[in-house]
Amino acid sequence: MILLRILREETELPRYIRRRFHLIDEEVQKLIRGVYTPYKICREYTSGTQLTTVISHAVIENLYFHTFYDIDDESKEWEEIAQSIWDYIHEKYGKEIDKYYHINCV
Question: 89 versus 16: which is more confidently predicted?
């Protein structure tokens, strides 16, 4: 029982990151609707995976400058936050973005 609790605590994201998941969702949707339109993605990207990577980088950058600006961007803490955001986007939106790309470009 104790081991399970320790493992859960080690893999659980910090609360301040989980509280901002709605910002990640909003940012992904905003970028798809406004920046990464079908016309643009078909000319500039070769796959849905590449588009997911580009969107992930954009979301991480935007969230850093608007939300996590008080954390040193070269710190271990920021690395962990950025990785958590990356994982969240790829798990939640990876297939959706890939499908969006294929519907509009293939």
Answer: 89
Q: Of 45, 61, 19, whose CA–CA distance to 97 is shortest? A: 45
Give the list of residues 6+ apart from residue 32 with CB closer than 8 angstroms, or none.
55, 97, 100
Query: How do residues 3-40 score in pLDDT, each as one tens digit?
Result: 444 444 455 666 767 777 888 999 999 999 899 999 89
Phi then psi for residue 19, to 5 deg, are: -65, -20
Strand, helix or coil for residue 14:
coil
pTM (predicted TM-score): 0.81
Q: Pull the structure tokens for residue 87.
A: 């994982």
Give alpha helix (H) positions in 12-75: 15-18, 21-34, 38-44, 48-66
**Cα separation, 66 vs 61, whole angstroms:** 9
- Our count of domains for the chain comes to 1
Shortest CA distance to 82 belongs to which of 101, 56, 103, 100? 56
